[in-house]
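hey so u asked for the seq, here:
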Amino acid sequence: MPLMRGVNGVLHHRMRAYYLPMAGGGLLIVSSFLPWVLLGGHGVGGLPDSAAIWILGLGLAAITLAVLSVITRKNSRHPLLVVGLAALGIMFIAHQWMTRAISEQAWARSQAVAIVDEVKAVDPPRTTIGSGIYVGLIGAGVLVLFGLTIVLRTASRPYTVVEDDDV
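ran it, structure tokens below
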């Protein structure tokens, strides 16, 4: 019976909406371990890369903020919005940079092999998006959308003047 009471307490907790950014932070952490770009079926990117370390840190920060909000019952949607926007920006810029850098490295390698072997150069395979980018963008999107709820909720309340200050 105490287990059911505990499960019921978790499901009906006042701050249960913060389980969503916990999941978003978890997705960011998972994405930092997955390949971000695929070159001919081989995954490139992930944790040794500096962008993945930043995404890992932002995922840990999102989970920490969400857990602290649940424990203290205080709102932390603004910092979660900033964390989500930072993660979204890092994922987008890292994908653009990694795709170009990996394509150039593969082209240079194929040219070098062609010069050494005295054969015609073969075009390297095209780069494609890896699963880490998709998972990270979903996690960052969850954090951004959750953080935007405070902005939308604040804007939906009309401003009313309680008393006249002009008198």
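The mean pLDDT is 84. The chain has five helices and three strands.
lmk if thats what u needed
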